[in-house]
Amino acid sequence: MIVIDGSIGEGGGQILRTSLALAALLGKEIRIINIRAKRPRPGLQRQHMVSVQAVAELSGAKVDGLHLGSTEIVFRPGSIRSGTFRFNIGTAGSVTLVMQAILPVMAFAPGPIIVEIRGGTDVPWSPPIDYMRFVFSHLLEKFGFSIDIVVRRRGHYPRGGGIVVVNAPNPPRMLRSAILKERGEIRAIEGLSHAVRLPRHVAERQARSAEEYLRNKLGNIPIRINTEWYEPSRDPHLGPGSGIVVWAYTRNSILGGDSLGAKGKRAEVVGQEAAQRLYEDLITGKALDRHASDMVLVYAALACGESILGGSRLTMHAWTNVKILEQLIPNVRIEFIEGGELNKSFIVRVKGICFQR
């Protein structure tokens, strides 16, 4: 049994999610200790418990130690399953972080697989659902994995209540390598600004602020940022919230930036934050933004062939993923050919293991 120390690197939920996905696919029994040791509230919280439950359901696994606040679990995987699954975080815990744990497993399901997750779709410290819909899903296609993400209802902190359905009608069961090194020329920018249980002008001001910032920085590139708003009598959401995701189509990739609204935070600030984050990642010239720089590493490690990945920022999440990949997949080869310092841009070569099911 392999022991994973949950206190290494970022010392949070990333270690748990990556370890579970790889253990389920590779059929390796693991013990994860010191779970989320570096967080103010160590141990499993609701969204982490649901991540464990979801990967376990999808892989027919048995789990010991699964309870709220647990700092140690044992995960014994079975066989990957297809079908329809439903999971409810029960709080505003992040839907997209649960998706991070299950998407690699879904790629190797023996048949069509549909997963419904209820919780927070647009909450702090996690990629918003629109990033997964409009940016990350396109990056997965570079590895040969196509998914459809439907948002039936948004969920914001503290009420949650979001409903997301992830559909993989044709899991590839084998991933191809990808060259995502330099972004190439910027061709167009799009975005989606939303506001629920709030006035329409909140979404409009977020969009306008983001567009103004990007036009000032990037010049005459086509920009289109749509807005999403509901009439109060027809708004199905449980509580108020707003946010914006903007993304850039480039010759070789797609990069995103995002920001969430908060009480007392002006809509103009929200819009500018998202635009600024996108711009900061674009000016590095690399093909992957700060979110994707850690998330695609898992797929490259499992893929057939050599992937070259250029990340705008080596986050602690990305560094941690590298360490977990090397521990659980001894025959994977990961080599930094540029950079390697935290919070700096980098290029990494990943020789995948050509995993198949």
Describe the structure.
This protein has 357 residues and is an alpha/beta fold. The chain folds into two domains: 2-179 and 288-351, Alpha-beta prism (UDP-n-acetylglucosamine1-carboxyvinyl-transferase, Chain), CATH 3.65.10; 183-282, Dihydrodipicolinate Reductase, domain 2 (2-Layer Sandwich). It has eight helices and 16 strands. The chain has helices at 13-26, 46-59, 95-106, 129-142, 200-218, 267-282, 292-302, 316-328; strands spanning 2-5, 30-33, 62-64, 73-76, 83-88, 113-119, 148-153, 162-168, 179-180, 186-196, 223-229, 241-250, 254-260, 306-311, 333-338, 346-351. The protein is globular, with a radius of gyration of 19 Å. The mean pLDDT is 97.
How would you summarize what this structure contains?
Helices cover 32% and strands 27% of the residues. It is an alpha/beta fold and 357 residues long.
Distance between the termini: 22 Å
Strand percentage: 25-35%
Can you tell me the CATH class of the largest domain? Alpha Beta
- Please list the strands of the largest sheet in the order they lie side by side: 1-2-4-3
CATH architecture classification of the largest domain:
Alpha-beta prism
Annotated CATH topology of the largest domain:
UDP-n-acetylglucosamine1-carboxyvinyl-transferase, Chain
Which homologous superfamily in CATH is the superfamily of the largest domain?
RNA 3'-terminal phosphate cyclase domain
